[in-house]
Recover the amino acids of this structure.
C-alpha cells in the first residue's frame, strides 16, 4: 500500500525477490506486477471467472515483520477490504475480493494492463499536454464518484494512478490503492497525516479535518508534475518541503514547458490554492475547467486520437437522450458505442433494409423521407432506427423510410450484440429513453394524421 505515515519510513531494504508462488488461494499466479512499501503485487488468473486479476499480498505480515509495519499493513488492508465490490467506475480499479489470510492477507483487484503514471513524470518521457488534461478530466470525474460514495482517497499520486496502455500508448487511467481512504460514513476519527508528502495539501499536512478538496489539491500536484516533468516543490529536507507546501507559490507552468497556455496554468494553479476555499467548489467544476481547455483550444491538439473520450463524454452529457444516465453508464456509452461521422447526403437507412442497429445523433441533422416526402427532421439528441431495432418480428424490422443526412452528422450506434456488452443498468436506461422517444413519435404520428400537411 502506498500511504506513508510521517515521518516517512526509510525505504525498505528489498532482499532478492522471493520465488513466485504457484498459487494464492484459488488464483493461479502468472507473474509479478510490482511491489510497494508494504506489499507484493502479482498477476493472477481466476479460473472460475476466466479472467486475469491483480493480487496484492501484504508483505510485512507474510514476513512476520516489524510490528509497526504489521500494524499499518492491517489498517490499510482493512480499509481496502471494506471496499470489495463497492467501487464500480471505469476509472477506478475494482476491488474484487479480500482474503484475511492470517499469515499473508491479500486483496484481489481488477488487473490493469499498463504501468503507473510515475514514469511519465520524468522530463524525458512526458505525455502530450492534451493527454495530461484528458487524464486529469477522467481522474476528476472518478474522484467525484469516489466522493459521492462518501470516500476521500487521501493518497492521490502518480504511483497510485494506473495508466492503461494499448500498443504502448496511454489510452485510459484508473485510480488505485485505497489503503489510505477516509470513509466519511464510518471512520469516527480521521487518522492524520497519511499520504505522500510531495502531493499533500497544506490542510492534510497539518492534520485539519479533510474534505474532497484535499484530493483535488493532490490531483493538481500530479497534473503539475506530469506537465512540468518536475514536482510542485523540491527540497532537501522534509521540513523545508513542508515549509514550501505551506508558504511557497509553485513556479508558473507556462515557464516550465513549451505549449502550456495561461489558461491551462490557471486551471491547475487553482486546484493548488493553499486555501481550500479558493480551489474548485466540487469535482464537477474542476472536470469542467479541464474539458473546457480542450473545447476552447487552450491545449495544443496532437494526433493521439481524433476525438478525446472527455469530449465525447461532455457531448453526450448535453443530449436529452442521455439525461437520466449516470456518469458510470455514460462512460460505458463513450467506450462501447460505435462513433461515426457522416457527410451530407449519406443514407443512414434505406426503405426496405433490415434494421439491426440504431443511431443517436450526437451532432448534425438527418431527415426522414417516406416515398420521397419529408416526414420528419431529427437533430442532436434524438434516436433514429430504434423502431426497426426494437421490432418484435422480422417483418417489422424492415425500415419503412429513407433516413438521409442533411447536416454533417456525428452519430453513435449500437447493434443488439454491442448493447449486450453494456451493464444491465445501462441497457435499462436505454430502454427508458426509447420509451420517451416512442411516446413522442406516437404523439407526432397522431398529429400528422390530424394535420397531414404539417412537417414534424
Ligand atoms: N490492479 C493492478 N493492475 C496491475 N498492476 C498493479 C495493480 N495494482 C498494483 N499494480 C502494480 O503493483 C505496484 C505496487 O502496487 P501498490 O502501489 O498498490 O502497492 P503499495 O504497497 O501500496 O505500494 P506503495 O506503498 O509504494 O504505493 C504498482 O506500482 C503497480 O505497478
Amino acid at each position: 500500500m502506498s500511504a506513508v505515515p510521517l515521518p516517512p519510513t526509510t525505504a525498505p531494504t528489498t532482499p532478492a525477490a522471493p520465488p513466485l508462488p504457484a498459487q494464492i488461494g484459488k488464483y493461479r499466479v502468472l507473474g509479478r506486477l510490482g511491489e510497494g512499501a508494504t506489499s507484493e503485487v502479482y498477476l493472477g488468473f481466476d479460473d472460475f471467472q476466466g479472467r486475469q486479476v491483480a493480487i496484492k499480498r501484504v508483505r510485512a505480515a507474510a514476513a512476520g515483520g516489524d510490528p509497526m509495519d504489521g500494524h499499518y499493513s492491517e489498517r490499510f488492508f482493512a480499509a481496502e477490504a471494506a471496499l470489495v465490490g463497492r467501487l464500480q467506475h471505469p476509472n477506478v480499479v475494482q476491488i474484487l475480493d479480500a482474503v484475511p489470510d492470517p499469515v499473508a492477507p491479500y486483496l484481489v483487484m481488477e488487473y490493469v494492463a499498463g504501468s503507473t503514471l510515475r514514469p511519465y513524470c520524468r522530463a524525458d518521457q512526458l505525455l502530450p499536454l492534451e493527454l495530461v488534461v484528458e487524464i486529469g478530466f477522467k481522474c476528476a470525474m472518478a474522484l467525484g464518484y469516489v466522493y459521492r460514495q462518501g470516500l476521500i482517497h487521501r493518497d492521490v499520486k502518480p504511483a497510485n494512478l494506473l495508466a492503461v496502455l494499448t500498443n504502448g500508448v496511454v489510452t485510459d487511467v484508473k485510480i488505485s490503492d485505497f489503503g489510505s481512504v477516509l470513509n466519511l460514513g464510518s471512520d469516527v476519527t480521521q487518522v492524520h497525516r497519511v499520504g505522500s508528502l510531495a502531493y499533500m495539501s497544506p490542510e492534510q499536512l497539518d492534520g485539519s479535518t479533510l474534505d474532497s478538496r484535499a484530493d483535488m489539491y493532490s490531483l493538481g500536484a500530479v497534473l503539475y508534475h506530469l506537465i512540468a516533468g518536475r514536482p510542485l516543490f523540491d527540497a532537501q529536507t522534509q521540513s523545508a518541503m513542508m515549509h514550501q507546501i505551506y508558504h511557497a507559490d509553485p513556479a508558473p507552468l507556462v515557464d516550465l514547458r513549451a505549449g502550456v497556455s495561461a489558461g491551462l496554468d490557471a486551471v491547475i494553479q487553482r486546484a493548488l490554492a493553499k486555501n481550500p476555499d479558493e480551489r474548485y467548489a466540487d469535482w464537477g467544476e474542476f472536470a469542467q475547467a479541464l474539458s473546457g481547455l480542450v473545447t476552447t483550444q487552450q491545449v495544443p491538439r496532437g494526433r493521439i486520437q481524433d476525438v478525446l473520450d472527455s469530449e465525447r463524454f461532455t457531448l453526450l452529457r448535453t443530449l436529452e437522450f442521455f439525461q437520466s444516465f449516470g456518469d458510470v453508464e455514460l462512460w460505458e456509452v463513450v467506450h462501447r458505442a460505435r462513433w461515426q461521422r457522416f457527410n451530407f447526403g449519406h443514407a443512414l437507412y434505406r426503405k426496405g433494409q433490415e434494421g439491426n442497429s440504431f443511431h443517436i445523433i450526437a451532432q448534425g441533422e438527418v431527415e426522414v423521407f417516406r416515398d420521397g416526402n419529408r416526414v420528419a427532421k431529427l437533430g442532436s439528441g434524438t434516436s433514429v432506427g430504434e423502431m426497426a431495432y426494437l421490432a418484435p418480428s422480422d417483418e417489422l424490422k424492415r425500415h419503412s423510410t429513407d433516413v438521409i443526412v442533411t447536416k454533417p452528422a456525428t452519430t453513435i450506434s449500437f447493434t443488439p450484440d454491442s448493447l449486450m456488452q453494456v451493464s444491465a443498468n445501462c441497457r435499462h436506461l436505454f430502454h427508458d429513453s426509447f420509451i420517451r422517444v416512442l411516446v413522442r413519435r406516437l404523439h407526432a404520428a397522431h398529429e400528422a394524421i390530424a394535420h397531414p400537411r404539417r412537417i414534424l
